[in-house]
């Protein structure tokens, strides 16, 4: 015979003051718990973004652990005290729920501290395991404390409502996911399955936490109203621990608004299982359709962060509507028939499919792995080849032959296992589809040296527009050109860079810009866009047009206006990968026509002479100090001069860290202002392996150059300093063609003819680790080079 529902407590003489005290105390503790956990999550994420923008590094795992533990401690103490308050059953019930929720938040948040953000599949596995373990633990504690009974006094009709409430919970959660289906994109197939599994585990955990929502006494409206507030705080805690990096911030907008819907479902069903369906379906949106790496503000707010925020806010609005509908219907005891509840879930599911296939971006877009092989090509003796075309062809042939021979067994296995891959030769490596399982298998292969992440950006509804210039072409050479003597080289020495080709790898180039259009080399092998496969030069951001304009642009903005250019897009959306950077570096060594195979269709005799590289492959993008070193070695062996930006992580020392800047083969450039003073943002040396960097400095503050759309604009950074030096190399090699390919002699001329620059009194190891040998001097370098004939 079922046990009768418990009698509500009889009012006593002190009840007149207990009720308002209970309400006030419960509200204050709830606000504290929600506020502390939300603030803690936002603070740690903000610190992560600041570190990423300054040095391109992830936040250390201990910082996530510390943040999770500290915010959890501050939240759990008042919640636990509330759970122990005597003779206040409502407050005690809320305290019990919140205590469990905070414990869950700390345990789930700790997973972020032990797994890098790039290892998303591993994170999802651990998230699911921890969530399930917590649910099992909480239920075991319940069984140990007392024999479970129906605290809500559910009737037989309530029990029959379970199936209907399950369907309603699923329908509500799926409705909240609709904005994510419209604006987000899935990762890899395995990653998506794991995200759904992790969401289901979080739903199970939420149902377990909220199963003890409130005591049984009180009207349905009290249960839904007060219970909704209690559930909202609990869901805030669970959301704060769910999702790597900024995904948890999105969950904080998605889950807490469903508190009233959760309470209504709990009241209607007499148990919390429908709450699990509701939370699981809602949690799956951010977990599956937002890449945690793309919450990074280094992408720019108009990129993925904008759409992730928009989807989260839209989910919040839908959640509030679900709250209202469920509270008005289920709160009054109106539970729809089984077929109607099932039909509602079916309609929302069909709507989700329509939204995803229509407005969304169907398909999977998982990250890849960059697999570097142990054997790299032997490039010795190539610098002794006197003919430039023969030297570049010989370099290309050695690199390709090494890649084809050493990669053959691994390529066969990948094809046999139906695993997609892209082979590379400039670094003997392959970019391979797959997650943790593939990574584990590859690590057992004897030919593999290291496995790096090669992140792939998921598509977004709309790309941010490129920068536009609002200034006209200057009537005279700009101060930065006069500062390094470029205008004197044109005027007094009659050298403009004619006959030299400069290659740029960047966000692209506005090929129609008047400062650049007439200088494009042309042909079917002078432009490559591995991102969007454009057939003609286009700039996706504006950065590339500006930097190339400084190197060779006309209209009084370029150092070597007589040189021509070829271009490649390696950074469409401000977050690249080793594979994308290498795509462009390979194109620079051996250009190929549209649709060509780099390993088979390369034309090394068409390689540019000088490369300007205003980018750095950061740890967030998958690179380490070694990753691109063979590529720069190969380009140098071919006689191609590589100029690279030092980076914008100053004034801190030891910030020349992102490839290719730290390599000895790269001529690394720092930035100064118009008064020869080192810019605060310019990265300082020494490099992680103790090398003195930068090599020289050049103007990099408030530089006027071309921008997409035909106008001009001012930008600052070592990105702006770097093309000055590339332009000077073009002038040098144009003035004396015998210098072409002579990398050591050219480097010596640039370094020994550099003029003085002002550096602050800092201890970064040596003054040269601030400014190198000084400010590059185009006139002295060209005049000295000519005089050495």
TrEMBL record:
UniProt similarity note: Belongs to the peptidase S8 family.
Name used for this protein in its record: Peptidase S8/S53 domain-containing protein
Membrane spanning stretches: 21-42, 62-85, 97-115, 121-141, 167-187, 193-214, 226-250, 307-327, 339-359
PANTHER family: CELL WALL-ASSOCIATED PROTEASE, SUBTILISIN-RELATED
Pfam family of the protein (one): Peptidase_S8
Keywords: Hydrolase, Membrane, Protease, Serine protease, Transmembrane, Transmembrane helix
Keyword Cell division: no
Keyword Cell wall biogenesis/degradation applies: no
């Amino acid at each position: 015979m079922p046990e009768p529902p418990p009698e509500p407590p009889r009012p006593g003489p002190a009840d007149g003051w207990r009720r308002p005290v209970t309400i006030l105390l419960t509200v204050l503790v709830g606000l504290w718990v929600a506020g502390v956990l939300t603030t803690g999550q936002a603070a740690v994420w903000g610190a992560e973004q600041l570190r990423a923008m300054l040095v391109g590094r992830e936040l250390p795992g201990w910082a996530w652990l510390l943040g999770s533990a500290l915010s959890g401690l501050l939240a759990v103490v008042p919640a636990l005290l509330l759970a122990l308050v005597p003779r206040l059953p409502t407050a005690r019930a809320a305290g019990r729920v919140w205590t469990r929720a905070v414990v869950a938040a700390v345990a789930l948040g700790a997973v972020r501290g032990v797994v890098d953000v790039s290892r998303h599949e591993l994170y999802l596995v651990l998230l699911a395991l921890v969530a399930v373990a917590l649910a099992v633990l909480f239920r075991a504690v319940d069984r140990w404390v007392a024999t479970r009974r129906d605290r809500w006094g559910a009737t037989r009709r309530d029990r029959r409502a379970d199936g209907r409430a399950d369907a309603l919970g699923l329908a509500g959660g799926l409705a909240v996911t609709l904005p994510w289906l419209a604006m987000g994109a899935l990762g890899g197939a395995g990653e998506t399955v794991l995200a759904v599994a992790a969401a289901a585990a979080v739903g199970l955990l939420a149902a377990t936490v909220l199963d003890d929502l409130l005591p049984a006494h009180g009207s349905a409206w009290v249960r839904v109203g007060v219970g909704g507030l209690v559930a909202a705080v609990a869901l805030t805690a669970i959301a704060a621990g769910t999702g790597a990096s900024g995904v948890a911030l999105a969950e904080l907008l998605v889950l807490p608004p469903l508190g009233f819907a959760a309470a209504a479902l709990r009241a209607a069903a007499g148990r919390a299982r429908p709450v699990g369906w509701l939370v699981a379906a809602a949690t799956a949106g951010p977990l599956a359709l937002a890449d945690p790496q793309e919450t990074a503000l280094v992408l720019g707010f108009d990129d993925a962060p904008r759409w992730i925020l928009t989807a989260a806010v839209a989910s919040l609005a839908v959640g509030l509507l679900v709250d209202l509908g469920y509270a008005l219907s289920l709160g009054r005891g109106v539970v729809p028939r089984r077929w109607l509840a099932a039909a509602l879930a079916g309609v929302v599911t069909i709507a989700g499919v329509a939204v995803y296939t229509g407005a969304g971006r169907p398909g999977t877009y998982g990250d890849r792995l960059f697999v570097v092989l142990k054997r790299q090509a032997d490039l010795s003796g190539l610098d002794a080849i006197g003919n430039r075309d023969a030297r570049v062809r010989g370099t290309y042939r050695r690199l390709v032959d090494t890649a084809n021979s050493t990669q053959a067994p691994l390529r066969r296995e990948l094809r046999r296992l139906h695993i997609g891959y892209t082979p590379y030769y400039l670094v003997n490596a392959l970019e391979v589809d797959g997650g943790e399982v593939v990574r584990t298998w590859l690590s057992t292969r004897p030919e593999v040296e290291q496995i790096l992440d090669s992140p792939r950006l998921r598509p977004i509804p709309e790309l941010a527009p490129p920068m536009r210039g609002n200034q006209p072409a200057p009537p005279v050479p700009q101060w930065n050109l006069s500062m390094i003597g470029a205008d004197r080289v044109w005027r007094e020495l009659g050298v403009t860079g004619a006959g030299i080709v400069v290659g740029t790898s960047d966000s692209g180039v506005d090929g129609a810009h008047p400062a650049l259009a007439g200088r494009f080399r042309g042909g079917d092998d002078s432009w490559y866009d591995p991102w969007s496969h454009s057939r003609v030069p286009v700039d996706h951001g504006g950065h590339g047009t500006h930097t190339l304009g400084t190197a060779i642009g006309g209209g009084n903005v370029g150092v070597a206006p007589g040189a021509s250019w070829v271009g490649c897009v390696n950074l469409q959306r401000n977050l690249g990968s080793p594979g994308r950077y290498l795509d462009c570096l390979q194109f620079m060594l051996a250009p190929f026509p549209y649709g060509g195979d780099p390993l088979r269709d390369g034309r090394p005799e068409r390689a540019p002479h000088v490369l300007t590289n205003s980018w750095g492959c950061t740890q967030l993008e998958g690179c380490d100090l070694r990753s691109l070193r063979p590529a720069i070695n190969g380009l140098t062996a071919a006689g191609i001069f590589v100029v690279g930006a030092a980076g914008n992580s100053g004034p801190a020392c030891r910030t020349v860290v992102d490839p290719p800047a730290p390599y000895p083969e790269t001529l690394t450039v720092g930035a100064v202002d118009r008064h020869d003073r080192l810019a605060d943002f310019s990265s300082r040396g020494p490099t992680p392996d103790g090398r003195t960097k930068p090599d020289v400095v050049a103007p990099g503050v408030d530089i006027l150059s071309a921008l997409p759309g035909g106008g001009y604009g001012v930008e600052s950074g070592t990105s702006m300093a770097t093309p000055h030096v590339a332009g000077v190399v073009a002038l040098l090699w144009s003035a004396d063609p015998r210098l072409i390919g002579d990398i050591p002699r050219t480097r010596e001329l640039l370094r020994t003819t550099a003029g003085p620059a002002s550096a602050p009194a800092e201890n970064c190891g040596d003054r040269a680790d601030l400014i190198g040998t000084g400010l590059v001097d185009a006139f002295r370098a060209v005049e000295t080079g000519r005089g050495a004939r």
